[in-house]
Amino acid sequence: MKRIRVHVHNLLQPSTICRRFHLEARIEIGKMYASQFDGAAAFSGGGFMPSQATQTADPSPSVFSKNRDTQTLVPLTVKQISKALLSNDDKVNFLIDGVDVNNVKLVGMIFNKAERVTDISFVLDDGTGRIDCNRWYQSFIVVHEPVDTKEMEAMVDGMYVRVHGQLKGFQGKKQLVVFGIKPLTDFDEITHHFVECIYVHSYNTKLTKLQPSSSNQAHMPSSAVSTQSYQTAPSNQFTGQYVADGLRGIDKMVLDYLQLPGSLARESGVHQEELVKQLGIPLDKILVALNGLVDEGLVYSSIDDCHFKSTGNA
Amino acid sequence: MDTSNPAVLVNADLLRSYVGRRVRTVIQVIRPDAGGLIGRSTDEKQIVVKGHPPSPLTTFIEVIGVADTTQSICAEIMTNFGDTFDTNNFNQLCQLANGDFRHLFI
């Protein structure tokens, strides 16, 4: 992994154009870290606990207020989004590489732009896939906000754009609710965006190797944190938030897969190779996750040492 | 959401392994040709592009299309990428996107 990280850093050559993008990326990634720290300081305990959030009568406001402090802007490819899993505790947010993903940044080409009364819809194709996007007008009751219309008027089919938006699931399909869109003027940004996706993915998955989950659990103020939780209270360690989410990420993904109705229904259980293929995670990490889950009594080996089943109900 | 028809990021070397598949690459235009143009890939090899280039043409263009031989692409879309482009970065991105990080792209 270290070798790859250095390699990725070498990509960001000190040409002036790339330096500018590198700076922007650092600011965005810096915001990611900063929001983790702020969360750590302000919300140790409190409304951060998912059990509290789900116990309130109307969970949505508390989920949003909790999320606002951990929302980060994640650069992604459409392929990564297509593989995102729904996080179990609130069924609203998506999980990619074990990190909650809400606000995303994409770079791609516009197709099928359609202007409607309340919104403008288009398809964004970034070369790895196509995703439906929606840009709601700020006010459609009276007159369209001039800023909105100007911004979208300039967008034409076949044009490269940078899009910021929120990932939403609708009837099983993932869509993007766009709140920022800008045409690309410098096409090195395409290269930079993909390199950034690689870097963030590499960073998030690397953290899963760094620390075992048990040491982070010890820092949790509430004992109600189960393996179901993702918005776990941050520990005292700087990388605590990322690590807790990260490691729980792979364990959680394996557990989720084993708790799917299809997996539960199978007498023989799920073969570990199937987990490798379906989740796209290397075998050694899957085995580590499975061992951890077996130790915690959540998973057992069924017909032989390579097949596993979940113990509990989903 | 549709990830059924991705365009693989390639340079001339990688193009050889994706004949018949949808690919995308950035090339520097050398000269126009009958039925398209000839360009230099980011790893300094020649690629023939068949199709209708945009006009006016800038120094660098992105070609998205189907690779019909190990050295040519039948273009669906060609986009002007301007007169400055970092080919070294793009070249290394192609190697990463087809190597360790394939699962993020294809």
UniProtKB/TrEMBL annotation, chain A:
Domain OB: 104-184
Gene Ontology molecular function: single-stranded DNA binding
Sequence ranges assigned to domain Replication protein A C-terminal in this UniProt record: 208-305
Compartments where found: Nucleus
Main subcellular location: nucleus
Gene Ontology BP, a term: double-strand break repair via homologous recombination
Keyword Phosphoprotein annotated: no
Keywords: DNA damage, DNA recombination, DNA repair, DNA replication, DNA-binding, Nucleus
Signal peptide extent: none
One GO location term (cellular component): DNA replication factor A complex
Pfam families: RPA_C, tRNA_anti-codon
Lineage: superkingdom: Eukaryota
Family: Belongs to the replication factor A protein 2 family.
Function field: Component of the replication protein A complex (RPA) required for DNA recombination, repair and replication. The activity of RPA is mediated by single-stranded DNA binding and protein interactions. Required fo cell division in meristems. Involved in the maintenance of transcriptional epigenetic gene silencing (TGS) at specific loci (including some transposons) by regulating histone H3 acetylation, 'Lys-4' and 'Lys-9' methylation.
Protein name in the entry: Nucleic acid-binding, OB-fold
Natural source organism: Cynara cardunculus var. scolymus
From TrEMBL, chain B:
Keywords, alphabetical: Nucleus
One MF annotation (Gene Ontology) recorded for this entry: DNA binding
GO cellular component terms attached to this protein's record: nuclear lumen
Entry's Gene Ontology BP terms: DNA recombination; DNA repair; DNA replication
Domain of life: Eukaryota
One family name in Pfam for this protein: Rep_fac-A_3
Protein family per UniProt: Belongs to the replication factor A protein 3 family.
Major localization class: nucleus
Localisation per UniProt entry: Nucleus
Name of the featured protein: Nucleic acid-binding, OB-fold
